[in-house]
Write a sequence for this structure.
């Protein structure tokens, strides 16, 4: 057969010579797969459209195994089969080839069947099954299947929640459930369920929260056979959700307390507002706030909704610097207390209480109280700072006594009370004699020491309820309440005697440092005004200064008004 005869269709020529296979071009072209006629020398004599890639391989001699199969078929005059992979784009092709030799051994017909689709489908199926198997085995979740009786028929190889597959298979799934889920059980469901949450017992006895997605298993006849699904352990997620919810609730309550204290203009009311807000935030019947004073606590705010006398006294005894929280039961109430701190120092305490039948305070309550205490600790510190600022604004920087403004403001309030009570009192002006010489000769530092020495003398001769003030420079004032004239004179004599010790500060021994006193006695039922009282004390001071200093003068009594 020659290339020039490609397409010829006769069976045999004259003289009985066998021609190319008795298969015309129409027959080859109608074959559904690749078809090629090849001569004994390897020449391709004819091919159909599907055989273009196969014919090209034969022409290039690129398939020696196929060439060997053709030679074996021609030599044996018997059919031969082989598989051939044709590399190329867009994809490789797998051919199942049948070689049919002509009876005279001069040519052969090669017919092929494309196995690519079958191979790809088979490979895809194997790959899909392997992928499913791998995903099931490596997943942190577990897959399962139950039979019609509710027992586990299959559990993924890794098991679940500490259980091995053998621990679960054959056992009733309901045995492992804690409580009932919200709806159908996923292990006996007859309908599809998505993300149904249930509680499932762990191998260690704990309880996990699972999210189950599942559906029924039906037979060919539609009969229900069981259920199949996957469960995802969402325990940590739910714990985080709960913790976040508690945190948000806590934040809202703390903000409520912060707003309650911040909105109070008067610092004295801040702790009362905080106690009320804390009691409401924690559902308590009452709340007390204390400030640290000396070595103990002083009640600063008291919000009560129950008749419980001094509720915090018992529980505070259980609090020390190292104790964060302390609980106690008193008179049918459960108390919870904690310390407040600021800058590492205890500055107060907070105590809550509620009815004892409600049980002990829980961890969430205790944690919230600690945060509340932090805010109250800040409020106590702010109040202390405010009080310190107020104190600084009312006192003399050198002596610590009241300054002029604070003295006369307090004196006005006390004078009004004395008018109502009908009690006597005395105003004493104190003025240092020859003080300027101390500063001029010894300097201002020595002068300050002299002022402090006089301050100690004045404090030693007064009571806690008396007012002491430095009005400015070397001028001081005393206010004695509930004293008569005899008592005032006695105190004045004692003060003059004590003041002789100031002579060590003198600038000139001939002009020693001493004091002069101007005194005005307030008598009730006279109707004297405060201004009139001040004028009488000032006049008495002027008289003693003009008369030689170093002594005291009691102003003449005020005349009854009217």
């Amino acid at each position: 057969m020659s290339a020039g005869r490609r397409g010829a269709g006769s069976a045999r020529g004259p003289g009985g010579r066998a021609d190319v296979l008795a298969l015309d071009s129409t027959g080859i072209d109608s074959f559904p797969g690749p078809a090629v006629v090849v001569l004994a020398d390897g020449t391709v004599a004819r091919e159909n459209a599907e055989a273009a890639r196969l014919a090209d391989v034969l022409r290039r001699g690129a398939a020696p195994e196929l060439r060997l199969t053709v030679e074996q078929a021609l030599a044996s005059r018997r059919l031969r089969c082989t598989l051939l992979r044709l590399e190329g784009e867009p994809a490789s092709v797998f051919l199942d080839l049948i070689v049919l030799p002509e009876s005279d051994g001069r040519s052969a017909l090669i017919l092929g069947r494309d196995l690519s689709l079958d191979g790809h489908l088979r490979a895809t199926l194997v790959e899909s099954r392997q992928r499913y198997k791998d995903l099931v085995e490596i997943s942190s979740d577990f897959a399962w299947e139950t039979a019609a009786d509710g027992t586990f028929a299959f559990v993924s190889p890794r098991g679940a929640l500490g259980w091995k597959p053998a621990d679960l298979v054959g056992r009733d799934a309901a045995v492992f459930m804690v409580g009932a889920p919200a709806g159908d059980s996923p292990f006996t469901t007859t309908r599809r369920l998505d993300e149904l949450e249930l509680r499932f017992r762990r191998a260690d006895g704990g309880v996990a929260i699972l999210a189950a997605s599942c559906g029924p298993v039906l037979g060919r006849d539609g009969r229900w056979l069981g259920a199949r699904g996957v469960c995802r352990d969402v325990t940590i997620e739910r714990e985080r959700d709960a913790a976040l919810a508690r945190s948000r609730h806590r934040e809202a309550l703390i903000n409520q307390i912060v707003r309650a204290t911040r909105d109070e203009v008067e610092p004295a009311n801040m702790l009362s507002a905080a106690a009320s807000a804390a009691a409401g935030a924690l559902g308590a019947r009452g709340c007390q706030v204390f400030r640290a004073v000396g070595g103990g606590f002083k009640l600063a705010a008291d919000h009560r909704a129950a008749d419980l006398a001094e509720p915090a006294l018992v529980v505070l005894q259980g609090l020390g610097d190292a104790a964060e929280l302390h609980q106690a039961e008193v008179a049918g109430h459960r108390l919870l207390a904690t310390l407040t701190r600021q800058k590492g120092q205890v500055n107060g305490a907070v105590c809550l209480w509620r009815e004892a039948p409600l049980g002990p305070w829980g961890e969430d309550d205790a944690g919230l109280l600690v945060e509340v205490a932090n805010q109250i600790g800040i409020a106590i510190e702010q109040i202390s700072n405010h009080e310190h600022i107020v104190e600084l604004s009312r006192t003399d920087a050198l002596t610590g006594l009241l300054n002029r403004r604070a003295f006369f403001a307090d004196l006005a309030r006390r004078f009004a009370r004395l008018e109502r009570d009908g009690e006597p009192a005395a105003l004493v002006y104190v003025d240092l004699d020859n003080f300027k010489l101390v500063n001029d000769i010894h300097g201002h530092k020595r002068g300050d020491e002299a002022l402090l020495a006089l301050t100690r003398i004045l404090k030693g001769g007064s009571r806690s309820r008396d007012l002491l003030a430095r009005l400015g420079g070397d001028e001081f004032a005393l206010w004695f309440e509930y004293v008569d004239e005899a008592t005032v004179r006695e105190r004045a004599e004692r003060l003059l005697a004590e003041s002789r010790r100031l002579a060590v500060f003198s600038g000139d021994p001939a002009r020693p440092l001493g004091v002069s006193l101007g005194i005005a006695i307030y008598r009730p039922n006279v109707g004297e005004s405060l201004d009139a009282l001040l004028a009488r004390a000032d006049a008495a001071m002027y008289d003693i200064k003009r008369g030689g200093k170093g002594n005291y003068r009691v102003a003449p009594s005020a005349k009854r008004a009217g």
Notes: The radius of gyration is 55 Å. Residues 1-23 have pLDDT under 50 and may be disordered. Residues 60 and 273 are 99 Å apart (CA to CA).
